[in-house]
Amino acid sequence: MKFKPNQTRTYDGEGFKKRAACLCFKNEREEEVLLVSSSRHPDQWIVPGGGMEPEEEPCGAAVREVFEEVRDTDHCCQLYLKPIADAKKMVFYLHGIPRLIKLLQSDSEELERIAAGALRNVVFESSENKMEVKGVAPVMRLLRRSRNILTRRQLTGLLWNLSSHNLLKEHLSKEALEILTTSVLVPCSGLSEGENPKDGMLADPDTFYNATGCLRNISSAGPEGRKAMRQCENLIDSLVYYIRGTIADYKPDDKSTENCVCILHNLSYQVELPQKYASDLHESRLNLAPKTKTPGCFGSRSAKIIQRLEPKRPLLEKGSPSGVEWLWSAITVRMYLSIMARSICPYTQEAAIGALQNITAGNGLVSQAIAHTIVQRENGLLQAMKMLQEGGMVVKKTAVSLRCNISRYRELHAHIVKQLLPQLVVMLPNSDTSTDLPTEVTVSLCHILINLSQDETQHVRAIVNHGALPKIINICAEDNGFGPTRAGQAACILLHSMWSHSELHRAYRKIRPIPTQKADFVNSRTSKAVH
Fold first, then answer.
1. Quick one: which of 56, 55, 67 has its CA closest to 24?
2. Where would a tag sit more exposed on the chain, N or C end, judged by fewer CB atoms within 10 A?
3. Is the distance from CB of 213 to CB of 259 less than 8 angstroms?
4. Omega of the bond prior to 513 within 30 degrees of 0, cis?
5. Which secondary-structure segment (H or E) carries 261?
C-alpha cells in the first residue's frame, strides 16, 4: 500500500508583517500610485495622498520616502485604509506586477527588499496574480546573488506562495531547485559547515523554513517534479542533515523539520530503485548463504532447521549514503523511527510513518530489507504500538498501512503477533460499539490478519484467543446493498483462511458466548470472496 503525497500548503510568513511594504506603479492616467502595507495594519492597504507626477520624483525615491514615513508613523493609515483584496486586484488590473519584478533588479538593496515583500503579499491567495508573475528567473537571480537576510526571507516567502499554485509547481521544479538548494538549503542546514565559512553568514531559520515550504509544495505535484528533486545534488542530503541535527538537539518539533520530513515522505512515493542497487542487494543476500555443504551431527534435517531459523535476508547498510540513496538507507529508517518516538507534531509523525510505508510498499529486495531493518534491527514495532495507542486517526491509519506492508514477510510474523496483535484486535470495529474507524483501516487490519493466518496455526490461535473472531464475523456480514463492503470482503477471505487450519475446528466451536461452526467460515459469501 502506498501513501499519496501531501496536500499543498501555503504560508505568508510572519517576517513580512513586521515591516511595511510598498507598491508603486502608474494608473490609466499615467499617475504614480502607491499602495502601502503597514506593520500596524498587516491586513489592510493604504493609498496615500492620491497621485504624483512622475517627473516630480523618481519611483524609487517615492517608495523609499513612503516606506520610511509609514515605518515611523501610521498617521496616514487613519485616512486611507483599503481592504487588501481590493489592493491585489488593483495591482493586477494596473499591471503593477511586471513593474515590481523589474524592481528586483534595482541598484538599491532596500528597494529590492521592498519589491520582493510586495510581490510576496500580492500573490498570496491570488491565483491571477501568481500567474501574472510569468516566470521566476528574476526572483532566482536575486536570490542567488543577494546576501541580505531580509531580502532572502521575502524572496523565499514569495516562492513558497507561488508554489501553492498547481500550474506553477512544474515550472518551479525546473527553474528553482538548483538555486534553492545551493543558496538556501546547503548553507542553512549546516551541510557545508566548515567547508565554506561564508555560507554561515547566509544561515537563517526563516529563510530555510520558507524554502522548505516551497519544496514541500513542489514535491506534492507529480512524478516529474519529484524525479527532478531526487536528482538535484545536495537537496536530499541537506534535508536529512537538518532533520538529524534537530533530533540530536532534542528539537524534533522545530517548524522546518515538519517540512523536511514531508518532503522526504513525498520523494519516497513510488521511488524506483536503480538496477545497480538491486544487484548489490542480491549479491549481499547470496553472500549470506552457507559456503559449504558439510552436514551437521543430525544430517540434512539439522541443515533444514538452521535454514528455517536463520532465513537469508538482504543487507541494507552503506556507511555514507548520498543523494537518492538516503531514501532507502538504514540510517534514514532509524531517523524516521526517532521522529516517531520524539515528535508530538501529528503532521511530522504522519510523514515519518508515511515515508516508511512508501519504501516498504514494493515487492523487491529493498522493501524486504527495510521491513527487516524496521522490525529486527531497530525494534520499530514498539514505535508502531505507540502510534496505534496515542496517535490521531490519520496517524493510526498510516501506521496500520505500514504494518500491513511489513506483515507480508513470514519471518516477521512472530514479532507482529507478540508485540502488535493485541492492539490490532482492539482496533477492529465491533457491532455493539460505535466507531468512526475508516473503511480502509478495517481493510488493512483484516489483511494483516490474513497474512498472519496463512501458515502458522499458532498465529491463528493467538488471533482467536485475543477475541478477534466475533468481530471478524460481524465485519464479514457488512453489506452495502450490492454485496459485501470492501471490509466485508476482506473479512470473508480471513474467515476462509482461518478455517483451513483443521486443528482449530474444535477450538472454534468452543468460542463464547456464541459458539461458531463451519457455516460461519465457509459459506457462499466467503467462497465468493475467495474465488
1. 67
2. C
3. yes
4. yes
5. helix 255-267
SS3 22: strand
Identify the CA nearest to 25 among candidates 115, 150, 120, 132.
115
How far is Cα 28 from Cα 5, in angstroms, rounded to an integer? 45
Runs of H (alpha helix) within 20-148: 59-72, 84-93, 96-103, 109-123, 127-132, 137-145
- Considering the domain delimited by 19-91, tell me its CATH architecture: Alpha-Beta Complex (3.90)
Locate 164 and state its grid cell. Answer: 501553492
Instruction: Look at the chain and count its residues.
Output: 531
Q: Which amino acid is at 217?
A: N
Strand (E) or helix (H) holding 21: strand 21-26
Cell of 497: 483462511
- pLDDT tens sequence for the chain (531 residues): 554 555 555 444 433 333 334 444 444 444 444 444 444 443 333 333 333 333 333 334 433 443 343 344 343 333 333 456 677 888 888 888 999 999 999 999 999 999 999 999 999 989 999 999 988 999 999 999 999 999 999 999 999 999 999 999 999 999 999 999 999 999 999 998 777 777 778 999 999 999 999 999 999 988 999 999 999 999 999 999 999 999 999 999 999 999 999 999 999 998 877 666 666 656 655 554 444 444 444 444 444 443 443 444 555 566 789 999 999 999 999 999 999 999 999 999 999 999 999 999 988 888 898 999 999 999 999 888 889 888 899 999 999 999 999 999 999 999 999 999 999 999 999 865 546 788 999 999 999 999 999 989 999 999 999 999 999 999 998 887 777 899 999 999 999 999 999 999 998 988 876 778 899 999 988 898 887
DSSP 380-401: THHHHHHHHHHS-HHHHHHHHH
What is the architecture of the domain spanning 95-233? Alpha Horseshoe (1.25)
Taking CA atoms, 481 is separated from 386, 413, 442, 475, in Å, by: 37, 36, 19, 15
The Cα–Cα gap between 62 and 67 comes to 8
Q: Where are the domains of the chain?
A: 19-91, 95-233, 409-530
